[in-house]
Amino acid sequence: MSSDVKHPRFAPRTAFGIDIGGSGIKGAPVNLKTGEFSGERVRIPTPQPATPAAVAATVAQVVDRFSLRKAVPIGVTFPAIVRHGVAQSAANVDKSWIGTNIEQVLHKATGRRVVAVNDADAAGYAEVEFGAAKDVPGLVLVVTLGTGIGTALINHGRLVPNTELGHLEIDGVDAESRASDAARDREGLDMTAWAARLQRYFSVLEALFSPDLFVVGGGVSKRHAEFLPLLDLRTPIVPAALRNAAGIVGAACLAAEAI
Q: Does residue 8 lie within any of the structural domains?
């Protein structure tokens, strides 16, 4: 046989996604062709305090609920800046995670190779692969509005990790302190007043990045009809499609791509 014959690469059909949050650790197998769960999602409350050892043990419990082949890739979202598998921050989990190699800790607990990613990055990637930004060419900016503001920047299908654009300084303050859904709730803002703050935030993002599409996620996105039409932007802006499934789906996809 000629040495220049190229053998096909067979991508895995299934990967496993785990979403580590402040209140719950959720996991499910994901069909990588459709982006749908191929089994029932399991949720176990996040241990308190959410130390590395305690969270790792809970992640192992989630994985053990499924009969996964050893070759199935496992992706995990983590509420932090994640650089080469190491947590550089810690939101809604114990601060002892900072400087901890997430992938090594979870590998030791599960006996499997694990790929760890920022939670907003995972959700954003899922929207590009299977959700509101599927088949949109160019630069997509996914923004999740919740306790803070999470962001994911995807250019021609490639994720730029850890953008953390919710922490842009705008008008002398951290953007999420004024424009997050938590800020709206804390200050008792109606949708019109909050939309004015969102207008300022998205206008700055638009000026900096000139994206082809904004996708807005987070729990408040289910009320998108109350605030998105109030925004005046050149860039199209749409609500996220995958909602609570996005983290698991995105983590599974990114793990399959990495492994």
A: no
d(CA 69, CA 62): 15
Parent domain of 165: 135-241
Same domain, 210 and 177: yes
- In this predicted model, what pLDDT tens digit does every residue of 167-199 receive, in sequence order? 999 999 999 999 999 999 999 999 999 999 999
Give the CATH number, domain containing residue 188: 3.30.420.40
Q: Can you give the pTM of this predicted structure?
A: 0.91
Which pLDDT does position 77 carry in this prediction?
Answer: 98
Length of the chain: 259
- Examine the domain organization and report whether 111 and 153 are in the same domain: no
Amino acid at 256: A
Dihedral angle, C-alpha 106, 112, 117, 122, nearest 10 °:
-130
